[in-house]
Design a protein that fits this description.
Layout (H helix, E strand, L loop, with lengths): L14 H16 L4 H7 L4 H8 L7 H10 L5 H16 L1 H9 L4 E6 L10 H11 L5 H17 L7 E7 H4 L5 H15 L4 E6 L13 E5 L6 E6 L2 E5 L2 H17 L3 H14 L1
Parallel strand pairs: 1-2, 2-3
Antiparallel strand pairs: 1-4, 4-5, 5-6
Helix pairs in contact: 1-5, 2-3, 4-5, 7-8, 10-12
């Protein structure tokens, strides 16, 4: 069972968390279960489950799946969690993660399908937005472009924030016009030259399937538990739970082992640039 001390990072209550917590408590008490009994059926501590019920922690997909199974709600609890995700993503998930990153001394980033947002050029960001959200207005597109540019600026700290980034070859060969991709590759080449940035290219066709874990960032802040930021379809999920963080740290280490070394990656980017 996960150690209670890992859940010291209480967060401000949000209305959607309160609603979910009350719903969870009703389900538990209707079945005559104490927090300790429910915890005994799962890998989640009674302290953590109590914080979910009291809206002191945001629910995450793993714990909701476990609770849905143990409370036998046949997916109802998962649907309630989806409401929380939509509400939170509509409010402040992005600003919340940005706040943590501004305090970080190291960030590890991986995305299997696209160039990291903080390294995207304006034209590349426009292509990504218009393909993923075909109905996006020009106002929304411009907001995304400005946000990603300011994201990169935030990471240029006086303390010399270390960025360890893995970009897949797949992301660099997706159907984007040559002109847009040339500019994007130029940007990556420039970023890779900076002393605080380690950029590696993950070749296509590797046998390890760790890259299927999806997009995530690991944020390291001095004196605090590492923070995991995992992207999903409508936003981002943040947690400092040790089990989940360690799992993605292992994934990132595997990806680094399969990726090209930084100097070889730099040459790979140059070759791809010349081929366009």
């Amino acid at each position: 069972m996960l150690d209670d001390k890992l859940y010291a990072m209480d967060e401000p209550q949000k209305q959607e968390w309160i609603k979910f917590g009350l719903h969870l408590k009703r389900l538990r008490t209707r079945q005559g279960l104490s927090l300790n009994k429910l915890a005994a059926r799962t890998e989640w501590s009674a302290t953590y489950l109590g914080k979910l019920e009291n809206a002191r922690r945001a629910p995450n997909p793993d714990v909701v799946r476990d609770l849905d199974r143990e409370l036998r709600t046949n997916g109802a609890l998962l649907r309630a969690w989806s409401d929380v995700v939509r509400a939170q993503s509509a409010l402040d998930w992005y600003e919340q993660s940005r706040g943590y990153e501004k305090r970080a001394h190291e960030i590890r980033f991986f995305h299997p399908l696209v160039v990291p947002g903080f390294f995207q050029t304006a034209d590349y960001a426009r292509v990504i937005v218009t393909h993923t959200v075909p109905t996006a207005s020009e106002k929304r597109i411009q907001k995304v472009i400005r946000t990603r540019a300011s994201w990169r600026a935030d990471l240029d700290t006086d303390e010399g924030l270390v960025l360890n980034v893995i970009v897949t070859e797949l992301a660099l060969t997706r159907p984007v016009t040559s002109e847009v991709m040339r500019e994007q590759l130029d940007r990556l080449i420039q970023e890779a030259e900076k002393p605080t940035i380690t950029l590696q290219v993950l070749p296509s066709g590797i046998s390890d399937l760790a890259w299927l874990s999806g997009a995530f960032r690991l944020v390291y802040i001095e004196g605090e538990q590492p923070l995991l930021c995992a992207e999903h379809a409508v936003g981002e999920y943040l947690t400092d739970e040790e089990q989940e963080t360690r799992k993605l740290e292992t994934v990132f280490s595997n990806l680094q082992a399969w990726a090209l070394p930084p100097d070889v990656s730099a040459r790979k980017l140059e070759e791809m640039r010349r081929a366009l």
